[in-house]
Amino acid sequence: MDASAVSVEERLFSLVLALLASEQGLGKAEILSTVQGYRQRYVLGGNNASLERQFERDKDDIRELGIPLETLDSPERPGDTQAARYRIPKALYELPADITFSSEEITLLGLAAAVWREGSLSEDSRRAITKLRSLGIDTDDAVIGYAPRLRVREAAFTPLTQALDRHQRVRFLYLKPGQKKPLLRTVEPRALVVHEGRWHLTAFDQRARAPRTFLLSRIVGAVEVVAGAPFEVPGPGQAENSLAELERVWQGNVATLRVLAGSDAELRLAKRPGSTTTRTGEADMWEYAVHFTDLDIFADELSGFGPEVLVLSPAPLRQAVRHRLIQVRELHAGAGA
């Protein structure tokens, strides 16, 4: 296996298991040549300096988890790290007897770790996952399909998180649907929240002189910090207020759809929160009332179902879906010409 394919948490987990399994401890060469995540890069008799530095960082990470990693000096060569041995005493590592987890708590711990597996929070999450797994805590396979999908893939997330923590103004190019060119926005970040599985930035837009909400997926290019003194945050509860506003928009937007029974569209739309259904006069059609937050995102989703969905209302959503379907038809007609 390529070393790059071994995740950080897998390497740390393998190291913890190896050090737990050896009462006498393991030497550095033994660790680097045998433990998953190191052995793939180990060169017998060669230069392993970078790998040794990685091992030193991993030791610090493991100790930050509260795991008692011990260093045993060689009696013949005290102070020589090449001759030292490393171990984790089981008696000091195991959970106290009075601490137990129910199956529900174990499931929630595992899901919480899975949520923060990527993006700028990945280091904390990897440590959490390593700690949970090395303690023998694992999630129930039956709930794997219900793991929250909060993957931080947008490049804007990390710089926005840092700016939010430091109260720094930022600027970025933002492309709204229908615009030919992105516009430069300068904002004071207030909160980063997830709504309907997508990251949103709530910020005070200096050009509009008012609060605005931005989808991270629509930020184009790099997020730049604006020089100057940190701004003052209005007060606590910014994330809660942002989510409440997004919820208000979601509650106010309701689409009426006619959906083909037994189709992929019905399967997916029926699972959306708040959706309701009624029978129509046609045996193979159902009528759905579905909430949505962003018209363009929802139009993209509905147009992907093709003839399985007919939008009855609202008119702007119906028009947006129709426009997308016409574009697809014209694109295919041009390709066949």
TrEMBL record:
It holds the Pfam family WYL. GO terms for cellular component: proteasome complex. Residues 257-325 form the WCX domain. Residues 156-221 form the WYL domain. This is Proteasome accessory factor B. It comes from Microterricola gilva. PANTHER family: PROTEIN PAFB (PTHR34580:SF3), PTHR34580. InterPro entries: CBASS_pafABC_assoc_protein, WCX_dom, WYL_dom. The keyword Transport does not apply. Keywords: Proteasome.
